[in-house]
Amino acid sequence: MAQVGNVLLLSGSDTALKPFIETKATFMVDSVDEWRSYLLQSGAVVIRDKKKVPTGYNMTVKHPDGTIVEYVQHTK
Predict the structure, then answer these.
(1) pLDDT mean over 14-41
(2) Dihedral (C-alpha) 33, 67, 53, 1: value to the nearest 10 degrees?
(3) pLDDT at 32 over 80
(4) Domain extent at residue 70
(5) What is the pLDDT of residue 57?
(6) Average pLDDT, the chain
(7) How far apart are CA 76 and CA 18, in angstroms?
(8) Residues 20-43: what's their mean pLDDT?
(9) CA dist 26 to 18, 66, Å?
(10) Which residues, 6+ apart, have CB-to-CB distance to 66 below 8 Å?
(11) 68-74 and 23-28 strand pairing
(12) pLDDT for res 21
């Protein structure tokens, strides 16, 4: 994984990437909760709700156009 600005890039074998293959982008955000509210108001559907992960929180959302995006919030 590499971070370029607010975008995370993933690399690995086909097997390692299989759970993420439908996710078209991963964005770093200041607040998963704020983005969740905004996205739901914009017609998006939460596929995987906010979850605690070792680096903070993440969630996966399907946008109205069908694009699947993961949002990640790092905590200190």
Answers:
(1) 90
(2) -130
(3) yes
(4) 2-74
(5) 97
(6) 90
(7) 29
(8) 92
(9) 15, 15
(10) none
(11) parallel
(12) 79
pTM: 0.80
In this predicted structure, the answer to whether residue 53 has a pLDDT above a threshold of 80 is yes
How many angstroms separate the Cα of 49 from the Cα of each of 3, 9, 32, 57, 71? 22, 21, 10, 10, 10
CA distances from 39 to 25, 48, 60 (A): 15, 13, 11
Total tally of structural domains belonging to the chain: 1
Q: Which two tokens stand for residue 68?
A: 């699947």
Listed residue (6, 48, 55) closest to 23, CA to CA: 48
Residue type, 51: K
* CATH code where residue 50 lies: 3.10.180.10
pLDDT of 22 above 80: yes
Cα–Cα nearest to 70, from 42, 39, 43, 12 = 39
One-letter amino acid for residue 54 of the chain: P
